[in-house]
Design brief:
Length: 227
């Protein structure tokens, strides 16, 4: 199995409660979970990434246990070896493109400028055609360039899985199509397991080898297509 997720979490905000009961297993490398706003998709992703601790359950990625409440396992996010791409890309505004990509690789560096020309950074700059804008800052980039920087930064530390939260939501339609094609190529080239949450049917069509539907905190299986 590439993904085994079975988690429970009771979320409370004031007198409102939300019960997350996400359960699925997939042998596919491209799993898409879709559902309306508020269905619980982001909370599930946070649990997989280690940014939210479920009340109980078990999470495995490619046979590696990340969380198991019964066994007392709860790996911290940095040990999970997953890349989490947020909707808004969350690039560091005060770091240029080269430094943003290098951040994950050179975690804890004291002087970003001195160490930023690492061979791996050059590789990713090249792979995503970002070399011409390597010294520019996020606010000086187009939406597509920002998305490519975020993807390069996520992939640079060679994660074992890619988690994507509405990765194209902020892009205009033409760019969205291009970036979908780009992600499609990159995922196939690296053969990296990918879990995407979205409410866009086009994402489901493009990446849903295994499609799951989420409603009111629970997951329903839809279909598993040949890769
Ligand atoms: N920290 C929290 N405490 C309590 N409830 C929360 C918390 N975070 C989210 N929720 C609730 O959990 C539910 C699921 O939220 P979540 O962000 O996972 O939905 P989503 O499916 O990702 O929606 P969207 O597509 O809009 O991002 C919502 O009802 C939300 O109000």
């Amino acid at each position: 199995m590439q993904f085994t997720v079975d988690l429970q979490k009771n979320l409370r905000a004031g007198d409102r409660t939300f019960q997350l009961q996400a359960r699925f297993a997939s042998a596919s490398q491209r799993v898409v979970v879709y559902g309306a706003s508020g269905a619980g998709k982001s909370q599930m992703m946070k649990a997989v990434a280690g940014l939210m601790t479920p009340d109980s359950g078990r999470i495995e990625l490619a046979g590696r246990c990340l969380f198991d409440s019964a066994a007392g396992v709860n790996l911290p996010p940095q040990q999970r070896k997953v890349a989490y791409l947020f909707q808004d890309y969350a690039l560091f505004p005060h770091l240029n493109v080269r430094q943003n990509i290098g951040f994950g690789l050179l975690h804890g560096w004291r002087n970003p400028l001195a160490r930023a020309d690492h061979a791996a950074i050059r590789h990713w700059l090249d792979a995503f055609e970002l070399t011409p804008v390597a010294d520019q800052y996020p606010h000086q980039l187009s939406g597509g360039q920002r998305q490519r920087v975020a993807l390069a930064r996520a992939l640079a530390p060679q994660p074992q899985a890619l988690l994507l939260d509405e990765p194209f939501a902020a892009l205009d339609p033409a760019l969205r199509e291009r970036m979908r094609a780009e992600l499609d190529t990159v995922q196939r080239r690296l053969a990296i397991p990918m879990l995407m949450i979205t409410h866009d049917p086009e994402d489901v069509r493009a990446f849903g080898d295994h499609v799951l539907r989420m409603e009111h905190g629970s997951i329903f299986s839809e279909e598993e297509n040949a890769a």
